[in-house]
Design a protein that fits this description.
The chain has helices at residues 52-55, 60-80, 91-95, 99-110, 119-131, 173-179, 188-204, 222-232, 249-259, 264-270, 272-275, 282-295, 308-322, and strands at 11-18, 22-30, 36-45, 84-89, 114-116, 140-146, 151-157, 163-169, 216-219, 246-248, 300-303. The chain has 330 residues and is an alpha/beta fold.
């Protein structure tokens, strides 16, 4: 790995997203003017949310996988000269009855404190992270983040940063896989069940009443980047800035139809680098996206390289710049 030297004028920080399926690392430099430079990113698949939808309990094996990822990321942070690390947990952590025990376990094993974000916080930070990669977009923006356990949707203005609507839906790729898709590819009956679930979610929150003109629709999630890479035929997982990739509804529909006839093994073989850790839940992710675009008649989706951990790091960095003495704490 290439290690960028630390500039004395910048703060080098790291945020870690402990999600339902993945554990994601972001290392970035915050400059005195508030600008952010990404230094390094990595993803690992811990599947923390395994069984949580049914049991509301984090499994010991899953907790250990997260611990191992955090220890590895902590070592990487030392190599890069990271000055402080924050770790945030999302849907699986929110749902778990043993979340406090999990926090205690991680702190004892790694020395890192797990902060559990509310769905509202995750949605707001996701909007900020997604739009930080979208300098060429103005006006109304609809941001969607499809996770393993939940899907966050935020409607706001990219120019002013004002938010008009935000909500975290308890529907995600791992949750749908465990609740609806007992086989992959799913049967017609399983698809119908998932469709009904999604319709019930979207019907409760009529986004169309919040804007007079069509918003720019942005997908900020690993599933979105994976779809963009699969469409591009890329052979390695790397972040796509949304200015580089726009998928129309027909492309999304074509991929969804293809996934309905593709086994996880065949999908993994098609692109091992991109599908590693997500081949068995990818069809669920794309169904959520496909259904949402059809339900609200959204003609295209931009793929953003910014997610909630990017928004979190920016917010945290700005607070450190205004209170320099806090840079020594995690």
């Amino acid at each position: 790995m290439d290690i960028a030297p630390l500039n004395p004028a910048a703060h080098r920080l790291a945020t870690i997203d402990v999600g339902t399926n993945t554990v994601l690392l972001l290392i970035a430099d915050i400059w005195p003017d508030g600008n952010v430079t990404t230094v390094y990113e990595e993803q690992r698949f811990a599947r923390l949310g395994e069984g949580v939808d049914a049991s509301r309990t984090l499994l010991p094996a899953a907790m250990k996988r997260v611990r191992d990822a955090l220890l590895a990321y902590k070592s990487i942070g030392d190599v890069f000269g990271v000055q402080a690390i924050r770790v945030g947990g999302t849907s699986a952590c929110r749902d778990a009855l043993n979340q406090t025990a999990f926090q205690d376990y991680l702190f004892k094993e790694t020395g890192l404190h797990l902060e559990i974000l509310t769905g509202d916080e995750e949605a707001i930070l996701g909007f900020q992270g997604a739009t930080s990669f979208t300098d060429n977009v103005t006006g109304p923006v609809l941001v969607m983040d499809i996770g393993g356990g939940s899907t966050e949707v935020v409607l706001g203005d990219a120019t002013s940063g004002q938010l008009h609507f935000r909500h975290s839906f308890d529907v995600g790729s791992v949750r749908m896989r465990e609740r609806c898709f007992h086989q992959i590819p799913p049967s017609n009956k399983q698809l119908e069940t998932a469709d009904q679930w999604l319709s019930a979610c979207w019907h409760t929150f009529p986004f169309s009443v919040h804007f007079e003109v069509q918003p720019t629709f942005i997908l900020a999630s690993g599933a979105g980047m994976a779809l963009g890479l699969m469409e591009a035929g890329a052979l390695a997982f790397e972040r796509i800035h949304m200015t580089r990739k726009i998928l129309d509804q027909q492309v999304v529909s074509a991929w969804f139809e293809r996934l309905l006839h593709t086994s996880p093994e065949a999908l993994l073989a098609l692109n091992p680098a991109v599908m590693h850790g997500r081949s068995d839940v990818f069809v669920a992710s794309i169904q959520i996206l496909h259904h949402f675009m059809q339900y609200f008649d959204l003609p295209e989706v931009y793929i953003s390289g910014g997610e909630w951990r990017h928004g979190w790091l920016r917010k945290w960095g700005k607070s450190l710049l205004s209170e320099p003495e806090r840079t020594s704490t995690v």
